[in-house]
Amino acid sequence: MTDLLSVPAVTCPPYCFRSHNEPAGETVIHETNPIQIEQAPNCGKPVDLRVSQIEDELIPLLHVGDDTFDLAGARQLLASVSALVAVMEGASR
Fold it and tell me: Contact 16/31 with Cβ under 8 angstroms?
């Protein structure tokens, strides 16, 4: 029987949706619920977006499909996507 007092409690950030029951010493990963973005028709499966953070790491990571970005990369991705969406909006008028 496990002594519950010997297992450190996991304090999750507000965005974490997971229930944690990792044994002591195992890496704890906090995650947001994935958000699925549908692709254009006939262009493939939806892309999952989520944020994760390892318990002892200060920097969360953004996951876009199979790609992973730190905060600087996520900011650059956001700026680039915003600029390209503006181009798309201009072209569709």
Answer: yes
